[in-house]
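Hi everyone, sorry if this is the wrong subforum. Our group has a chain we'd like a structural model of before ordering constructs, and none of us has done structure prediction before. Sequence below.
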Amino acid sequence: MISSLQLEAFYQVAKQRNFSKAAKSLKISQPALSHRIKNLELDLQTGLIIRDPAGLRITNAGDKLLRYCLAREQIEHELLQDIISAHKDKGGTIRIGAFSSVMRSIVMPAIHPLLGTDPFVSVELLTYEMRDMIASLDKAEVDIILTSEPSKKSGLVTELLGFEENVLAVSKTKKCPEHVFLDHDADDPTTLAFCNLNKLDHSRIKRRFLDEVYALIDGIKLGFGRSIVPKHIVKKHPELKIIERYKTLKIPVYLQHYSQPFYASILKATLFELKKKFKEVLAKD
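Answer:
Right subforum, don't worry. Here is the predicted structure as tokens:
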């Protein structure tokens, strides 16, 4: 059996990625904290935490144990709610990582019903670039990710929710050169993919970078350039128009989370609401 003191020591270090802060939160000395984790590693016969010049890292075994700690915390929360509370709300925490074009337009409306009925629900919504999405799940920063580039790591549950229809959008009133395109950053492949799909010459394209999708929308309105953006967002901005003669660039949206032996009520409810809302919105594009 795992010692609860050792498990809590590991959990605090894994969450905070810092021994000093973890020791302070547990009200013990840093050597005592290190001793507990060392004993835990000996009991489990595997390394959990690596300290090197680049910082603190969690091993693959540590990732699994961290997910166990999170599930255990949710179970304990629900048990206490059931025992000491008269209300029947779910409580708990919703933690979702997503890319910018779906966070405000789909994720937030999807979880609204859960927040509106339960004041005990906490929310952590984090926007990531695609390349950072799976790392956020592995670090247990979030419990669910919405991504267009799913990982095939063992233990992950993956579900295709639909496709974002990306279109070429321009301002109805502001003029800008046809060869100026707006992207998130230099690694954003959207414009190139759209040009390849439509057999357009991209050698003359000039790119401007505006970080996230709503900055792109504002940039189009102001005449900074044109951009390839999701149709479901463009439709909400009457100042924009879609150049209809081009094929739409379909980008998949996957929901991913680690399989768990126990799913807290709030996690099950969140998964249900996300699937429902995504399929509803993306089906209209």
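For your construct planning: The chain has a mean pLDDT of 89. The CA atoms of residues 179 and 205 lie 5 Å apart.
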